[in-house]
From TrEMBL:
This is Peptidase M20 domain-containing protein 2. Keywords: Hydrolase. Pfam families: M20_dimer (PF07687), Peptidase_M20 (PF01546). GO terms for cellular component: cytoplasm. Residues 24-44 are annotated as: Disordered. InterPro entries: Amidohydrolase, Bact_exopeptidase_dim_dom, Peptidase_M20, Peptidase_M20/M20A_hydrolases, Peptidase_M20_dimer, Xaa-Arg_dipeptidase.
């Protein structure tokens, strides 16, 4: 007979799933072909890449210092004032005067190097917001150091040998990835005007070329009922809490009929005030996620049908509230740019896993998806941990992002982004391949009006 557990405490989740996925990853790694890398003759020549590596080595103390500084001063979305000042400070140390508070955002900074009328423009995006309560549990400090370090290295190459950059490189800080969809707001305001490609990294527990990033639609549902005395005249009420409960139940039942790459999660923000009054108002906050833009739109429609059905069953009203802009779109990774990234990381002693190695069930969302639907882009993952079982958005990831392994990732990722940009700028055939891959995967999506269609 089993002993009764202590009901004052939650049970401890089993690690069986993580253990099984780790074994599955190892098995796949042995059977899936390695990630493809750019041919030696493509992109920038070997001498240029070697010069870049030397510059990165010189810059590495500043890259690590920036990562550590941002890690030590975690700031949530739109309050990244210390971080943006740190970025501006290191740019000015190198004689680069950035434009601050661009596109109407206090912590959106922009700098550029190279000719505006050259072969094209590639943007390096930088996130630096933290998570409330746990700090940099998503490793944005490392990601920011990757981007800033890459930009500084390219600027230094151009300073030492004018004409090294035949096109323009933009550094753009993008606030509030965790709490908002700031890249969408920035894109609508003009961040990507004249930009031909965009790149950035993401911290992780593995080096991975590409991993699914789900699209996200945030929904609020407000149910309005009729209040009544819950004891003497409950029949005169229309229960908004019943509507919210039915909606949650309907969403739970809908999960059986969705694809493995879909996610539905919700919380009740308002469930009424007191038990002896039929609740007049309740509110749900929901995230609807899917791997593809088309399946995301379909799933959102099904969820909204559940919400309307709950209102119909209870005689309540419902208002479905969504943002006046698109939330996160799925990421579309560009194949030729990823080949350039893979080559760069193997040069640093890393070997990024191919796209199909990690289990697809481990997937989150990012507003870089909104960028990748507009211009060719990549969002590869770089390992910041000692072990491979550390999850994002945990205190363990926070520790790793400020550790020596996080420092190494800051430097290696800076070289990687700079090498990708240099490859793209140096090779017309590569630029054409990048554009062709983007068009073959769907071309430019009108993200701003995606939900109006």
């Amino acid at each position: 007979m089993s002993e009764l557990r202590d009901l004052s405490r939650p049970t401890t989740p089993s690690t069986a799933v993580q253990d099984l996925m780790a074994r599955e990853t190892a098995a796949r790694q042995a059977s899936v072909p390695p990630a493809q890398e750019l041919a030696e003759q493509a992109g920038a020549d070997a001498a240029a890449r070697q010069h870049l590596a030397e510059v990165i080595t010189e810059l590495s103390p500043q890259i690590v210092a920036l990562s550590r500084d941002i890690h030590a001063h975690p700031e949530v979305g739109y309050t990244e004032h210390h971080a943006v000042a740190a970025v501006a400070g290191v740019l000015r140390q190198h004689g680069i005067e950035p434009d601050e508070a661009v596109f109407g955002m206090d912590t959106a900074l922009r700098a550029q190097v190279g000719p505006q009328e050259g072969v094209g423009t590639i943007a390096i995006l930088a996130e630096f917001d933290a998570l409330p309560g746990i700090g940099h549990g998503c490793g944005h400090n490392v990601m920011c150091a990757n981007s800033v370090g890459a930009f500084l290295a390219l600027a230094e190459l151009e300073r030492r040998q004018p004409g090294t950059l035949p096109g323009r490189v933009i550094l753009q800080t993008t606030p509030a990835e965790e709490s908002d969809t700031a890249k969408e707001r920035l894109a609508v305001a003009g961040m990507l005007d004249g930009v031909d490609a965009a790149i950035q990294t993401h911290s992780y527990a593995h080096d991975v070329v590409d991993q699914p990033w789900l699209g996200v639609r945030r929904i609020r549902a407000v149910f309005t009922g009729v209040p009544a005395h819950a004891a003497s005249q409950p029949f005169m009420g229309r229960n908004a809490l019943d509507a919210a409960t039915l909606a949650l139940t309907g969403i739970g039942l809908l999960r059986q009929q969705i694809t493995p790459w879909d996610r539905l999660h919700a919380v009740m923000v308002d469930g009424g005030q007191v038990a002896n009054i039929i609740p007049e108002r309740t509110e749900l906050s929901m995230f609807v996620r899917s791997k593809y833009a088309a399946t995301l739109k379909d799933l959102v429609g099904r969820v909204e049908d559940v919400l309307r059905g709950a209102a119909l069953m209870t005689g309540t009203g419902v208002e479905i509230i969504t943002a006046d802009y698109s939330n996160e779109m799925p990421v579309r990774a560009n194949g030729p740019l990823l080949e350039s990234w893979t080559r760069s990381q193997r040069a640093r002693g890393r070997d990024p896993l191919a796209a199909d190695v990690l289990p697809e069930q481990v997937a989150a969302g990012t507003d870089f998806g909104n960028v990748s639907q507009r211009v060719p882009g990549i969002h590869p993952l770089i390992k910041v941990t000692q072990d491979g079982d550390v999850a994002l958005h945990t205190r363990e990831m926070t520790t790793a992002a400020g550790s020596p392994t996080g420092d190494a990732a800051a430097v290696d990722g800076a070289y990687g982004l700079a090498a990708v940009a240099l490859d793209w700028l140096s090779d017309a055939d590569l630029r054409e391949a990048v554009r062709a891959n983007f068009e073959a995967s769907g071309g430019v999506v009108d993200v701003e009006h995606f939900w109006d269609e």
